[in-house]
């Protein structure tokens, strides 16, 4: 079947990663795409023809998640190396490193106002970071197994998380308490997110299912079984009318949430698809998977004005009157409305002039010094060019003081290595672990002291009451 004008179209694909793609995210400006991979690198792709791609080097293990801040001026990444990094998404790639989790970090998510960052980890916790102060803010503990994903609601009042303990939890960011809990006896959710107006959540299940829950009435609204393998990721279209899913069965599927049915199955990847994301305005979406390819698609079927959508969604509240499905998803007719069967699109068969992008890649190397808060960055030039040297500065510094060292790209002898550091990495990690344990012990001792004080007070009251009783008995006798 030939594609109709309103059908999604694969526009181009980017090659540069050496291993599976784990996460994709669009810059809010619509001009760039960030990707994370098993090859330990982040990559920043520019949509302009012939534009360079930037590869950010710094993580020491698989990068599991990447996301732009709402203004697009920061890029957050999570990794199996137990760290979270913040990057300046440019050719210098300044970065800073957050260390608080004691196990691999699985996801990062900025609040809509950009003030906070939520991270989910295999240490069973969700941590929230204050972006203004660049500091750890608080932890959320209630999950009993690895936490795979944590996302802010559009208004920032709630956080939704999913875990391998087979629960999805809703947290109140004001009182730091778990206010709702959805459980599943079959599988666990790999990924979870709020719809654009914050009234519902969608979960991507390891049991091959996609579920839509209404958090105001605690009800399962829709349950889709359209994939033949686990679902790894979902993304809402900004209108809230559509949901795209990525699965280990090698396909992407687009669901019409108003009609409650599958409308598109998209081929294109060879092997499992791990991640998918709509752009801010919904005109594009991108996917990545085990084949190490990043595919860029044009949506076509639902053009919306991004600003209008954002304004409409900000006006909505979580805890209003019981919802109606048409209230949750504002109705816009789908061009394929008259057709009941899902359409399968295989770009390998239909697109003969597909634009392939394997742009020149500029490496941005980041080296952390354990004794300072600064990061030294090196940008590798292309052949025939001279390097622009080192840059050393704190992440949020407004000033840049470069020292230009003109050397050939092949001369890497002056780059710092782990063996040249003042403190070996293993010792640093051990000291950090000891500090974490000491912090836990300090909190435990503090709690025990409070309990001991309460016990002493109660014992004192008991003795006083006993003395009064004895005196009363003596007076009567």
How is the topology of this model organized?
Layout: E1 9-14, E2 21-26, E3 32-37, E4 42-46, E5 53-57, E6 63-68, E7 75-79, E8 83-87, E9 95-99, E10 105-110, E11 116-121, E12 125-130, E13 135-141, E14 147-152, E15 158-163, E16 167-172, E17 177-183, E18 189-194, E19 200-205, E20 210-214, E21 219-224, E22 231-236, E23 242-247, E24 252-256, E25 261-266, E26 273-278, E27 284-289, E28 294-298, H1 306-315, H2 325-328, E29 343-345, H3 347-350, E30 355-357, E31 361-368, E32 375-379, E33 390-393, H4 425-476
Parallel strand pairs: 1-30, 5-31, 25-29
Antiparallel strand pairs: 1-28, 2-3, 3-4, 4-5, 6-7, 7-8, 8-9, 10-11, 11-12, 12-13, 14-15, 15-16, 16-17, 18-19, 19-20, 20-21, 22-23, 23-24, 24-25, 26-27, 27-28, 31-32, 32-33
Task: Summarize the structure in short.
The protein contains four helices and 33 strands.
Descriptive report:
The strands form seven sheets. A seven-stranded mixed beta sheet has the order 2-3-4-5-31-32-33, with no helix packed on it. The chain has a five-stranded mixed beta sheet with strand order 26-27-28-1-30, with no helix packed on it. The protein has a five-stranded mixed beta sheet with strand order 22-23-24-25-29, with no helix packed on it. 15% of the residues lie in helices and 39% in strands. It contains four helices and 33 strands. The model is unreliable at 313-338 and 369-422 (pLDDT under 50). It is globular. The N and C termini lie far apart (104 Å).
Q: Helix content range of the residues, please?
A: 10-25%
Distance between the termini: 104 Å
What percentage of the residues does DSSP assign to strands (E)? 35-45%
**Would you tell me the structural class of the helices and strands?**
mainly beta
Approximate shape: globular
> Rg, please?
26 Å
Our count of helices gives 4
Strand order of the largest sheet: 2-3-4-5-31-32-33
* Low-pLDDT runs: 313-338, 369-422
